[in-house]
Design a protein that fits this description.
- The protein has helices at residues 11-28, 49-58, 75-81, 129-136, 158-168, 215-223, and strands at residues 2-6, 8-9, 33-37, 62-64, 85-86, 100-104, 110-117, 148-154, 174-178, 188-189, 195-197, 202-203, 239-246, 253-261.
- By secondary structure, the protein is of the alpha/beta class.
- It has one domain (2-206, 234-261): Metallo-dependent phosphatases (Purple Acid Phosphatase, chain A, domain 2, 4-Layer Sandwich).
- The strands form 3 sheets. The protein has a 6-stranded mixed sheet with strand order 5-4-3-1-13-14. It has a 6-stranded mixed sheet with strand order 6-7-8-9-11-10, with helices on one face. A two-stranded parallel ribbon has the order 2-12.
């Protein structure tokens, strides 16, 4: 199975570069599925139904969120009505939506997506992503009842992302890190056969502060307060993604490639 995962989409610049390049990437890599993190797709904060519609039309199949998943006013309705959108799975079970879903692709192959939110430096105080992952994956075995499993580990601390990679090595096809918006140069296949990258980076304008116009965050760094709302940086976007090819028999990764294009 050939998969591509897009790092956090930040605002219009990120949406536009994905809209422009996804058809080309689908053909070039013979993709079975395109997964995108949309935690900052709507003006930098969350995602809307219109964003999902636009990205689906461009060729994105599945969406993951993060700590900003609830920022838009209709977020709870959207995660329940949009079957392709996942919120972090370690929210309480009574929370709208789900963060672990099995998708049957057009090829007939079965792809499981597990989306988790980290605990270190996050204010949500959710269940442990490690015990949550263990429970969510208990009924799935690569190469038997599922062809591939991709985990989006959305968190601040690189140590927590690395720990999840080691924790799930050999049990899933890929663990991809999101949230910090800056790509790490460590894309590789771990000892047990799981593709891994600590952070996939962002799809947005890199002439910025993690995708946002520098004015507001600079105010906070210099004066310890922010007087204006943070806005995504405008201008040309860059697409950052991880390509993973899995073995048809085992479901483990046999090729991984970091991709960055404008």
């Amino acid at each position: 199975m050939n998969l591509i995962f897009y790092g956090d989409i930040v605002g219009r610049s990120g949406r536009e570069v994905i809209t422009r390049l996804t058809p080309q990437l689908r053909a070039e890599f013979a993709l079975d599925a395109v997964i995108a993190n949309v935690d900052n797709a709507a003006g930098g904060f969350g995602v809307t139904a219109e964003n999902c519609k636009q990205l689906k039309a461009a060729g994105v199949d599945i969406f993951t969120g993060g700590d900003h998943i609830w920022d838009q006013k209709d977020a709870h309705q959207l995660v329940e009505s949009e079957p392709a959108l996942l919120r972090p799975h370690n929210f309480p079970p009574t929370t709208a939506g789900s963060g672990c879903k099995l998708f049957t692709l057009k090829s007939g192959k079965k792809l499981l997506i597990l989306h988790l939110l980290g605990q270190v430096f996050h204010k949500e105080y959710l269940d442990s992503p490690f015990t949550c992952a263990q429970s969510a994956l208990a009924g799935y075995t690569l190469g038997k009842n599922v062809d591939a499993i991709l985990v989006d580990m959305h968190c601040e601390a690189t140590s927590e992302k690395c720990a999840m990679g080691i924790f799930l090595d050999g049990k899933v096809s890929a663990v991809v890190g999101t949230h910090t918006h800056i790509p790490t140069a460590d894309s590789r296949i771990l000892k047990g056969g799981t593709a891994y990258q600590t952070d996939t980076g962002m799809c947005g304008n890199y002439d910025s502060i993690i995708g946002f116009d520098p004015t507001a965050p600079m105010q906070q760094f210099l004066g310890k307060m922010r007087r204006i709302r943070m806005e995504p940086a405008s201008g040309n976007g860059t697409l950052s993604a991880l390509f993973v090819e899995t073995d048809d028999t085992t479901g483990l990764a046999k090729r991984v490639e970091y991709i960055q294009r404008q």
